[in-house]
Each structure stands twice: as structure tokens, then as C-alpha cells.
């Protein structure tokens, strides 16, 4: 089998940030926290991996997952429900021009 | 006769509405002309507060000039998480290319300062 080229460090980091950003968009607290935690764990596990085959398999899986995550986040925004009591209530920020 | 009355009514109505409006419009214009954005101190304290929320960050080493990797001992994944947290705090999205360049606390502060939609 031909040698697989590993995804670059930058592309993995960009994927990481887009997955975190997408996970953050869930409106339900439980889903949001779960996907943030899961994404962080997955990337931590692979952090010291050097095997190109494993890395590119990981990258491919996460790209597919990101697409699913994006769709689910949109659906979750439609049916998010109320904010829970445990959620941090954002303070209302004022700017001098708003 | 009644037709003229109606016509006259329609003529006067808009005039009345116009007279009532100007004061509120002046108010709005005044609000929009106020100085925009956040002050440098506000940004600095809020960015530092975000960083204090990270377990790995030692509050003693934290200052506006510290670098994520060299001074605070964060790795590349942590640096991405810091940028994400800053994004969330200021309700903005930093494009990947510019997020890559943010390697120190000062750079994060500067980026927020030059982003008009941050709040």
C-alpha cells in the first residue's frame, strides 16, 4: 500500500478550532458540553501520535464528524429549549455606542 | 362636501406625525455619534480574566506581555482553546489565519482592539 501523507499540524489545529466553534453553537447545555468535552478528549489522545496512517485516518473521521456536528448544531438551535439554571448567565455588556 | 373634509384630514395627519418625530430622531443621532468600542483597559482585564479561567495557566506568570507557549507553558491545542475562549468572551469569530498569529496575550488584546464588532 502506498504511504499515506499525514495531515499537517496547522490543518489539524484548524479542524480542532472549527470543531470547537461548531460544538459551541449547540443551544442545549448538555449537548454543548458533551461535544466540547468529546472534541477536546479526542484531540488530546492523538496529540503525541506520529504515525501518518493513524493521523490521516483520524483527520478523515473528524472531518466527517464535523459535517454531522454542523447539521446537528443547526437542528439543535431550532429546538434548544430554555437555559438551565446551571448555565452561566452572560452579563449584559454595554458599549458607549449601543 | 364630505369629500373635501376627508381630503383635508389626510393632508393634516402626516403633518402632525412629522411634528412629533424630530426629538426622538435627534436623540438617536446623538447616540450613534458617541465614541465607539471598548477601552484598552477593559479589553486587557477581560482577556486576562479569560486566561485566569484556564487550569494550566499560572496566575502568577500571567501578564499582558506573556506568550502562550513560552511563558504560560501552553501547547498548541491549549492555544487554540484560549483563542476560542477569547472569541466567546467578545462574541466574535476570528478567522483561522489571524487566529494562528495570536501567540501572546498582547496580540490577542491588539486583535480585539482593532475589531470594531467586539463587545
* Spatial separation of the terminal alpha carbons of chain A: 61 Å
Q: Specify Rg of chain B, calculated over alpha carbons.
A: 26 Å
Which regions of chain B contain 5 or more consecutive residues with pLDDT less than 50? 14-20
- Give the CA-CA distance, first to last residue of chain B: 60 Å
Q: Briefly note the structural class of the backbone of chain B.
A: mainly alpha
Helix content of chain A: 55-70%
How much of the sequence lies in strands of chain A comes to under 5%
| Broad structural category of chain A | mainly alpha
The helix/strand series of chain B, from N terminus to C terminus, equals: HHHHHH
Mean pLDDT of chain A: 89
Keywords:
heterodimer; A: 98 residues; mainly alpha; 3 helices; B: 119 residues; globular
Describe this structure in words.
- With 98 residues, chain A is an all-alpha fold.
- Chain A has a domain at 9-76.
- Chain A has 3 helices and no strands.
- Chain B has helices spanning 2-20, 22-32, 40-52, 76-90, 96-101, 105-113.
- The chains are: A mainly alpha (98), B mainly alpha (119).
- Chain A binds chain B through residues 9-10, 13-14, 16-18, 20-21, 24, 40, 43-44, 47, 93, 95-98, and chain B through 31-32, 34-38, 75-77, 80-81, 83-84, 87-88, 93, 96, 99-100, 119.
What's this model, at a glance?
Chain A has 98 residues and is mainly alpha-helical. Chain A is built from 3 helices and no strands.
What layout of secondary structure does this protein have?
The complex is a heterodimer of chains A (98) and B (119).
Chain A: H1 9-24, H2 29-46, H3 52-78
Helix pairs in contact in A: 1-2, 1-3
Chain B: H1 2-20, H2 22-32, H3 40-52, H4 76-90, H5 96-101, H6 105-113
Helix pairs in contact in B: 3-4, 3-6
Amino acid at each position: 500500500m502506498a504511504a499515506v501523507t499525514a495531515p499537517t499540524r496547522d490543518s489539524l489545529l484548524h479542524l480542532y478550532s472549527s470543531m470547537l466553534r461548531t460544538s459551541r453553537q449547540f443551544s442545549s447545555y448538555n449537548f454543548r458540553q458533551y461535544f466540547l468535552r468529546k472534541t477536546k478528549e479526542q484531540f488530546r489522545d492523538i496529540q503525541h501520535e506520529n504515525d501518518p496512517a493513524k493521523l490521516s485516518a483520524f483527520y478523515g473521521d473528524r472531518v466527517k464528524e464535523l459535517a454531522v456536528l454542523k447539521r446537528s448544531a443547526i437542528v439543535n438551535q431550532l429546538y434548544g429549549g430554555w437555559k438551565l439554571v446551571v448555565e452561566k448567565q452572560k452579563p449584559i455588556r454595554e458599549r458607549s455606542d449601543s | 362636501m364630505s369629500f373635501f373634509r376627508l381630503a383635508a384630514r389626510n393632508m393634516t395627519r402626516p403633518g402632525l406625525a412629522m411634528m412629533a418625530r424630530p426629538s426622538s430622531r435627534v436623540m438617536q443621532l446623538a447616540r450613534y455619534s458617541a465614541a465607539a468600542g471598548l477601552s484598552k483597559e477593559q479589553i486587557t482585564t477581560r482577556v486576562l480574566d479569560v486566561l485566569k479561567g484556564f487550569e494550566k495557566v499560572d496566575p502568577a506568570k500571567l501578564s499582558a506581555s506573556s506568550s502562550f507557549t513560552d511563558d504560560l507553558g501552553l501547547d498548541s491545542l491549549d492555544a487554540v482553546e484560549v483563542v476560542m475562549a477569547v472569541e466567546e468572551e467578545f462574541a466574535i469569530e476570528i478567522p483561522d489565519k489571524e487566529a494562528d498569529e495570536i501567540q501572546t496575550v498582547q496580540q490577542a488584546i491588539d486583535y480585539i482592539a482593532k475589531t470594531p464588532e467586539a463587545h
